Amino acid sequence: MASVTYQERRDALETYFDRTAVEAWAKLTSDAEVSGIRATVRAGRDSIRETILSWLPDDLTGELLLDAGCGAGQLAFAAAARGAHVEAVDLSPTLLELAAERAPVGLSGDVQFRAGDMLDASAGPVDRVVSMDSVIHYQPSDMVQMIADLASRAETQVIFTFAPRTPLLTVMHAVGQLFPKSDRSPAIVPVSEGHLRRRIGEHPDLQGWTIGRTQRIDSFFYISQAMELVRA
Ligand SMILES: C[S@@+](CC[C@H](N)C(=O)[O-])C[C@H]1O[C@@H](n2cnc3c(N)ncnc32)[C@H](O)[C@@H]1O
Question: What homologous superfamily does CATH list for 6-231?
Answer without folding.
Answer: Vaccinia Virus protein VP39 (3.40.50.150)
